[in-house]
Amino acid sequence: MLRLPGLIDPHVHVREPGATHKEDWTTATAAALAGGFTAILAMPNTSPPVTDAAALETALGAARAKARCDYAQYFGATAANAEAIAPLASRAAGLKMYLNQTYGTLRLDDTAAWHAHFRLWPRTAPLVVHAERHTLAAAILFAALYDRPVHIAHVSRREEILLIRAAKARGLPVTCEVTPHHLFLTADDAPRIGPGRSEVRPVLASPADRQALWDNLEVIDCFATDHAPHTLAEKDSPQPPPGFPGLETALPLLLTAVQEGRLTPNALITRMHTNPRRIFGLPPQPETWVEVDENARWEIPLRGWQTRADWSPFAGMQVIGRVRRVVLRGQTVYADGKVLASPGSGKPLRGR
Length: 352
Known about the structure:
The chain is α/β, with parallel strands linked by helices. Helix content is about 30%, strand content about 20%. It is built from twelve helices and 14 strands. It has a six-stranded parallel sheet with strand order 5-6-7-8-9-10. Helix 6 packs parallel to helix 9. It is globular, with a radius of gyration of 19 Å.
């Protein structure tokens, strides 16, 4: 058995409140444990979105009652809430700014609205941007103008990773994450996955874009799933929402890359534990680890998952490595396919 530290996913869509038919805190954290994640950071584009103190308390109340692993909740930026939420930064996972089209209603189109958040959000608190192509360049400019750290979510294109490389070479305070679906899938996989089921934001890119991510692995700080569950009925509808479930498949995919020599075990740990904990200022989880059968070979199925969405865009892919046991604070919370943690046993990572 290979023993890993508890993994941290800084980019998870729990869907509670507002869309618990897709996922809630119980099922999302069950999926997290099944995937080897002992801590998740939840995105704010729920319904209603988490954009004020009352909405934050609603989300955290649900997490306190239901979460099976440790957790924190992001605030979402709007054109009008910078002054109200900045004093509450210590209670949140961070601030998420949506600068491109995605699922939900939080897109900030006007760069004039960005200034207040970059100015008022505490420099010591994480600020995460969904930024693609030109808006990514603009977000890096804002990081330079305000001399504050910025974390860029789900980088997917060659032009983006090269821009981040250049920013880091200049010493700008920029970090970034990449998803397994952008590392292991491309637009060429869309016909196999299905037209609606392959909808995701950022979109699946070209094989050349994917190769650029692997070629610039040293620039990537974190692997984050962007677990974004929707039901198959929704994905197969005339207007399929974007997003994939991914908490339970990320580690097997990346362990397969380790077996293939594309990634080292230390590089995996750095991007799934060490760097997320450092970038997001998370407390340690004592007596916490994940046991993996690194030689287990299996085919990813379409159905049969802990996530309520219960499907995978990676169905049919062969992988090597399987989570066998997860221990959180000395307690076995997952073993051989069974989630043993009770709802509400997870602990908040902020505002204790």
